[in-house]
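Aim 2, interim progress: modelling of the S-adenosylmethionine-bound target.
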Amino acid sequence: MRKLIKLIFIFLKNLVIISRPHILFGWFRNISFLISNTISLSKWISKQNKKNIYYHSSFFKRDYSKRYSLYNYIVENQKLDKQPFDYLEFGVCQAHSFRWWISNCKNENNNFFGFDTFEGLPENWGAFSKGDMKANIPQVNDSRTAFHKGLFQETLPLFIQSTNFNSNKRKVIHMDADLFSSTLYVLTSLAPHLRKGDIIIFDEFNVPNHEFLAYKIFTESFYINMRLIGAVNNFFQAAFIIE
Ligand SMILES: C[S@@+](CC[C@H](N)C(=O)[O-])C[C@H]1O[C@@H](n2cnc3c(N)ncnc32)[C@H](O)[C@@H]1O
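Predicted structure of the complex, ligand included:
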């Protein structure tokens, strides 16, 4: 009986493939993908315990200053002012967030690495087109900083090769690249180098087809336990600690 069910299943599957359903139903793919990821996101959010984390939910208005209060909380709660750490930001653009970290974390042994094409987004993203967000490499006048210009897919492998990740320094990884592909690429590349206590911040976490999807696929594929420590703007910005 099981053999027969298996044969029928294989037959039906092959029938679906050769009948090329995308011709009739291709229009439905994007909308069903968005609906599916939105349902995953809402399910994920509803499962989070918001009591023991830093949490602000602004329902009607997105308040960007809240992300700086989240950074403040991370620094204080994780005692980052008591120990040197490496800060890696993916998606620097005009360096608004990058500058916050260098000016609020003064330990001379901190290092701040910024990665960006500085030629703008490599793909379309929502209402933004490929090439939007182009910016000059920021002038920050701080010897602790270094910028890596180019696609993460080109600069990160070289950075990883030349970096000693075995030091006891914690890492603060700031994902602000917006795109699914960029976020997933960085997370998977850094996965072997993540240590307990490292922090990962997302800047557009609640975008279902992009950062959230990258987070979901990453955590499900690598079995890496990331505990939520803070979220603001209804999970637009979210921060996690590696356990
Ligand atoms: C939203 S902006 C960053 C904003 C910045 N963190 C701030 O607070 O001002 C996103 C940036 O990600 C960069 N980016 C996205 N994908 C990238 C990739 N694969 N390689 C390099 N840069 C990328 C874009 O060039 C863009 O400048």
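The longest strand covers residues 226-232. The chain has one domain: 49-242.
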